[in-house]
Specification:
- The complex is a heterotrimer of chains A (about 270), B (about 200) and C (about 210).
- Chain A is an alpha/beta fold and about 270 residues long.
- Helix content of chain A is about 55%, strand content about 15%.
- Chain A has two domains: about 200 residues, Rossmann fold; about 30 residues.
- Chain B has a domain of about 80 residues.
- Helix content of chain B is about 75%, strand content about 0%.
- Chain B is built from six helices and no strands.
- In chain B, helix 1 crosses helix 2 and helix 5 packs across helix 6.
- Chain C contains seven helices and no strands.
- Chain C is extended, with a radius of gyration of 26 Å.
- The chains are: A alpha/beta (about 270), B mainly alpha (about 200), C mainly alpha (about 210).
Chain lengths: ~270, ~200, ~210
């Protein structure tokens, strides 16, 4: 253990803290933020049977954070009988997106082809977004499984963004920006988003200007949404550990500054 | 007892976590496997979802012979592996760069600049006659932050004051972003811990 | 000669994509559709070329005996995926999907999860309130962290509202200014690229 350093103590502290909190378990109600409420109200306000495009614009690395967000939003959409068209603008989002749509669909007895479809992945996201504005079928001639899109009952009458009530971008990066900027060029596409917490401040200006209709972010956003739809999930389960980790980081900041200030005093003395 | 899939996923998760102590052969082996598998995955998805679906099937199946143009341009990309003809790969790159730049001009102007500026300029006084603090803060924040990034003049006088104020707004932004980034990283780790404790080690539900 | 052709292609496609934005004619929309399709196909080939480069680099690096086991594992992992997809397909429950879900996803998300530890370590060793502005940064971060945890309402009823106010107004305005700056910069760079003034993408000197 000759390589043991002070930072390893910090790592160990975090690991043990999270493990203990998760083993103890528990949870509590969280106050729902206005933005999360707005997302809920928006999806609730869509007429039943509206077509919503769900774009999985994330990598596998952020799945632990993205999954609770995506599941909460998909569950709400399915419960409202929205018709979901899944696409992926990142290669890794392809399989993950399909699995998320399919697993949550089973909870609501939704059928592939009628209630939800998954069209797969297209590279070069700008070209894909621009292309779907003209024709979704030309962009995705087949779905992920190779079935011609024209043969899918859900896709009848869904030609381009004019036939889509909104696009829901599930993102861990800047892809939602591209939906906002390139998707709204001609069709004034309504964009809503479920993003990782790290991307929340990136989209705040678009929220404020109305270019992004609404957004939920991070595990807290997922916990709030699960509360609203009344279905527990990973968001609520993770909140005690999330709280503990936040307090731990704050303590580290305070401890680091106290240690630095004391060493400075000693040096000055 | 967890199933074989969970055991494999758990062992690989622990292999990656060994990096926290230090770089070691177990971590390197896992990392090498990850790189290889993820690149192989990308190849399969790109081939099946793109090249087959929008190139080869319509070209050879439906007779859309105009698609030989992008096919030839795409094949030109491979010329970069031959020193003699590598410059030919610039031509398809030109298509991608030019297309992106062309659509970016009106999009950046409309969606990123004009729409954001129009959202910034709003009435500073409410109907009741009271000042709209939020609108004043936003307008001041945008102007002061833009002043901070203006380097074509010496920062004296009004510009100096504005750019100093811009620093404060930027600190608030960076602090907010840092807080949310910490949340995000912790969430990812919490997700992995949930897998280890519940699925792999079966210590909790 | 190739550089000139590449510049001409860049100019041509750039002008087409720029001008079609201002037209609602069906022909313009079809042209945009066609360019977008070509763009995606060429990009897909670019990805394949990158992948071929990866294989080439690994084969070359495997000559070093220290690196060889890792390179072999990389190449075997890479080769396995298309073979699995070809033989058993991509459907749910296929070996291809199994490898993705039980090997790639767990490892990839764990690599990302390591950042949590480094953030905690950086919080102790790096974040110093050396100046008033640094202190403001740390205070803002503390407010955000507390407000987004389960204890926020327990600590104070105005903490979540304060955090939302900071995020929605002063923080957002700074981000907006950065966004506007990036937008203007992207605009001018795109113009320079189309007109051939900016040639760094060609490689070599002007």
């Amino acid at each position: 253990m000759k390589n043991f350093q002070s930072r390893h103590l910090v790592f160990l502290g975090l690991f043990v803290l999270i493990a203990v909190v998760m083993l103890i378990g528990g949870g509590s109600e969280v106050k729902v933020s206005p933005q999360t409420q707005k997302m809920y109200d928006f999806l609730d306000s869509l007429p039943r049977g509206s077509v919503v495009m769900v774009s999985f614009d994330h990598e596998a690395s952020s799945l632990p954070e993205i999954r609770p967000i995506a599941e909460a939003l998909l569950r709400h959409a399915y419960s409202r009988d929205q018709k979901l068209v899944g696409v992926a603008l990142m290669a890794e989002g392809t399989l993950i997106g399909y699995r998320l749509m399919e697993s949550t669909a089973r909870e609501y007895d939704k059928n592939y082809g009628e209630d939800f479809v998954f069209l797969g992945f297209k590279p070069q996201y700008v070209a894909a977004i621009l292309s779907m504005a003209e024709s979704i079928e030309a962009t995705f001639p087949e779905d992920y499984f190779g079935t011609p899109v024209g043969q899918l009952p859900l896709m009848e009458g869904v030609d381009n963004y004019q036939d889509v009530a909104a696009v829901m971008s599930i993102a861990d990066g800047s892809f939602t920006t591209h939906w906002i900027e390139y998707g709204r060029i001609r069709h004034n596409l309504t964009v809503i988003a479920g993003v990782t917490a790290a991307m929340v401040t990136t989209y705040d200006p678009y929220l404020a200007s109305g270019q992004l209709e609404t957004m939920i972010g991070g595990l807290r956003g997922a916990a709030e949404y699960e509360q609203l739809i009344g279905v527990p999930g990973g968001g609520g389960r993770g909140m005690p550990a999330q709280t503990a980790s936040h307090i731990y980081v704050l303590l580290m900041i305070v401890a680091g500054n106290v240690a630095w200030w004391m060493s400075r005093r000693k040096r000055d003395a | 007892m967890p199933d074989i899939s969970t055991i494999i996923a758990g062992v690989l998760t622990l292999a990656i976590l060994t990096f926290l102590y230090r770089d070691n052969p177990i971590y390197k082996m896992a990392e090498s496997l990850l790189i290889g598998v993820s690149i192989g995955y990308t190849l399969v998805i790109v081939w099946s979802n793109t090249l087959m679906a929008i190139l080869f099937t319509p070209l050879f199946g439906d007779g859309r012979w105009l698609l030989t143009i992008p096919l030839l341009l795409g094949l030109l990309m491979f010329s970069r592996f031959t020193p003699k003809f590598s410059k030919l790969s610039k031509i398809p790159i030109g298509l991608m760069i030019g297309s992106g730049a062309g659509i970016a001009i009106p999009t950046m102007l409309e969606q990123r600049t004009l729409k954001q500026m129009s959202a910034t300029v709003s009435p500073l006084v409410l109907e009741s006659g009271l000042p709209d603090l939020a609108a004043i803060v936003v307008l001041a924040g945008v102007i002061c932050t833009l002043s901070y990034f203006y380097f074509s003049r010496e920062r004296t006088g009004a510009l100096g004051v504005a750019s100093k104020a811009g620093t404060w707004f930027l600190m608030l932004f960076f602090g907010t972003t840092f807080g949310y980034t910490v949340m995000s990283r912790m969430s990812t780790f919490i997700g992995r811990m949930e897998f280890l404790l519940a699925d792999f080690l079966r210590l909790t539900q | 000669m190739e550089r000139r052709i590449a510049l001409a292609v860049c100019f041509g496609f750039g002008i087409v994509m720029f001008l079609q934005y201002f037209s609602s004619l069906p022909e313009a929309r079809r042209l945009q559709q066609a360019v977008a399709e070509y763009w995606q196909i060429v990009f897909a080939f670019a990805l394949v070329v990158g992948i071929a480069g990866f294989v080439q680099a690994n084969v070359k690096a495997s000559k070093d005996s220290k690196e060889r086991p890792y390179r072999i594992v990389s190449v075997v992992g890479f080769a396995a995926m298309p073979i699995l997809a070809l033989v058993w397909g991509l459907k749910a429950g296929s070996p291809f999907m199994w490898v993705f879900e039980n090997i790639q996803v767990p490892m990839q998300s764990t690599v990302f999860a390591l950042l949590a530890f480094f953030v905690a370590s950086a919080s102790y060793r790096g974040f110093r309130a050396r100046s008033a502005s640094a202190t403001l940064l740390l205070v803002a971060a503390a407010i955000m962290l507390l407000s987004r945890s389960a204890v926020s309402e327990w600590l104070s009823s105005w903490l979540p509202d304060l955090a939302d106010w900071i995020r929605n107004y002063p923080s957002m305005s700074a981000r907006r200014a950065i966004l506007v700056g990036i937008g203007l910069g992207s605009l001018t760079t795109s113009l320079r690229v189309i007109l051939g003034v900016e040639r760094t993408w060609l490689g070599g000197s002007r």
